[in-house]
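Team,

Forwarding the record for the chain on the shared tracking sheet. I've put the sequence and predicted structure together so nobody has to dig through attachments.
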Amino acid sequence: MSITILAICFFCIAVLYSTVGFGGGSSYITILLLTNLTILDIRFIALICNIIVVSTSCWYFYKAGLLKIEKITPLILLSVPFAFLAGMIKPETDIYRSVASVALILAALFMVIDLKSKEIKNISKPMLTGVGGGIGLLSGFIGIGGGIFLSPVLHLIKWDSAKYISAAASFFILVNSVAGLLGHLLTDFSFDWKQGLILGLSVFVGSRLGNQLNIHILSHERIKLLSAILIAFVGIRILFTQLS
C-alpha cells in the first residue's frame, strides 16, 4: 500500500473519529495490518497519530468548556500506569487481532443498547477507577488510547451527556496514548520517520475538521450513533482479517 493511499485513509479516519472524541488508533491499526509492518511498528504509528488527533481535540473541547478534569481524574488513576505496563508487552499477531476484534464488537453492542438514554447518574469514584484501569490495560496491549472502549461504557453507566463523554474520551486517549508510547519505546523496533511525518500531518489536518463538526454541528444522538457504527466497523474488520 503506497504512502499516498495511507495518508488519504488516515486523513478520513481522523475526520470521522475526532467528531466523536476518538483518536482513530483502532482504524489506523486495521489499515496498517494490511501492510508488511510489524505489530510493534503498527502500535507505534497508531499511538503517535492518536496523540496528534486527540491533542487537537482536547484543545477544542477545553475552549468549548467541555472538559471536566476533576470528574475525569478517577478514570485515569490506574489507566495510565496500566497502559504503560501493557505497552511493554510484545503480543503475538493472532492473539493481538483476536483480543482487539472481540473487544471492539462488544463495545459497539454496549453503545447501541444505550443509544437513546440521556439520563445522567452519579457513579462512585472506585468504580470509575476500576473501569479506567481495565480499559488502560486493554488499550495499552492493543496500542490505542482506549477511548473507543471508554465511551460506550460511560454511555452505558450514564456518566454524562454525549459531548462531555466525547471530551472525556479524548483526554483519556491522550494520557493513555502517551503512557503506552513510553512503554512501547522500551521495546526494540525500527521506524520510518518520513512515513510517520506524512501520516502525522494527515491526521492533524483531518482532526481539525472533525473537531468543528463535533462542537458545532452534530447532535447528542448522532454522536452516539456514529460512535457505535465506527466501533462496530473496526471490530468486524479486524475479525475478518483474522479469519481470512
